[in-house]
């Protein structure tokens, strides 16, 4: 009856019943299942390049980006990431430092160059704002420490800095930031001098001088904030904690040899 309805011969039906799937078709189905699984697991943040890296790393394969991209297009799967620009306010500094880092983001070992900045979050259901102040190690772009607060003040940055010193008391890196009021005050200058760190500051209006830190903020907001709904700032704060843990320990980066930042740091530390 099915053959009559579909207007195909019975021989074609039986031939299809006995057909063995080619190895390529089986592989495509397997990879399509992985794409859908990882798209759901990582909340839609994986574009085809990062999807390729995750599939290859987690399954010990070497598929090309073009192949994964083609399958993602067939499935209608794409990254939900969107970018958003933030306008920053300028304040008159008590003192400034030269751009000693000078966009040289290369390092030989961990704890040679640290970057920092403050970024803000807001949601429609709350009049408050949430601020994040992290320290990034340029060796593997891992977030060494971070602090969150509902106030953008000196205390936020001081607590962040004290946590970094407690974690790595022997570290004496170049410490680079923009010219925000937290970093141009006399108290913070004293903290850096006591820790024997070299202070460096971006030039006015040159956010590219702190490019990797700005890049981290863009990645964080694209992957866990933009396009998401949060019922409270407390819920958002928990999501930030969870994301930074993911970023440090499970977010593979191609430039790190498909390792996560902390994994890359640990490997480098074992080689020293």
UniProtKB/TrEMBL annotation:
Gene3D superfamilies named in the record: Ribonuclease H-like superfamily/Ribonuclease H
Q: SUPFAM superfamilies in the record, alphabetically?
A: Ribonuclease H-like
Domain Integrase catalytic positions: 106-269
Fetch the PROSITE patterns from UniProt.
INTEGRASE (PS50994)
What would be an example GO MF term here? Answer: nucleic acid binding
Q: Which InterPro entries match?
A: HTH-like_dom, Integrase_cat-core, RNaseH-like_sf, RNaseH_sf, Transpos_IS3, Transposase_IS3/IS150/IS904
Report any one BP term from Gene Ontology. Answer: DNA integration
Membrane-spanning residues where? Answer: none
Q: Which PANTHER family match?
A: INTEGRASE PROTEIN (PTHR46889:SF5), TRANSPOSASE INSF FOR INSERTION SEQUENCE IS3B-RELATED (PTHR46889)
Report the protein name in the record.
Transposase InsO family protein
């Amino acid at each position: 009856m099915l053959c009559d309805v579909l207007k195909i011969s019975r021989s074609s039906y039986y031939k299809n019943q006995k057909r063995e799937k080619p190895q390529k078709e089986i592989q495509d189905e397997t990879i399509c299942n992985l794409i859908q699984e990882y798209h759901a697991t990582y909340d839609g943040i994986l574009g085809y390049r990062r999807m390729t890296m995750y599939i290859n790393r987690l399954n010990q394969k070497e598929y090309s980006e073009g192949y994964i991209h083609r399958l993602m297009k067939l499935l209608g799967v794409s990254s939900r990431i969107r970018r958003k620009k933030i306008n920053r306010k300028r304040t008159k500094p008590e003192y400034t430092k030269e751009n000693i880092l000078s966009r040289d983001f290369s390092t030989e070992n961990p704890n040679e160059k640290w970057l920092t900045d403050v970024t803000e979050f807001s949601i429609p259901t709350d009049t408050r704002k949430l601020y994040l102040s992290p320290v990034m190690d340029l060796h593997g772009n891992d977030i060494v420490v971070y602090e969150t607060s509902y106030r953008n003040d000196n205390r936020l940055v001081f607590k962040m800095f004290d946590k970094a010193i407690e974690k790595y008391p022997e570290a004496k890196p170049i410490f680079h930031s923009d010219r925000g009021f937290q970093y141009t005050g006399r108290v913070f200058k004293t903290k850096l001098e006591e820790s024997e760190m070299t202070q460096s500051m971006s030039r006015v209006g040159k956010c590219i001088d702190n490019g990797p830190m700005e890049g981290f903020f863009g990645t964080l907001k694209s992957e866990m904030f933009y396009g998401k709904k949060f019922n409270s700032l407390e819920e958002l704060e928990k999501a930030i904690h969870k994301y930074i843990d993911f970023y440090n320990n499970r977010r593979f980066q191609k430039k790190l040899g498909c390792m996560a930042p902390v994994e890359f740091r640990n490997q480098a530390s074992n080689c020293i």
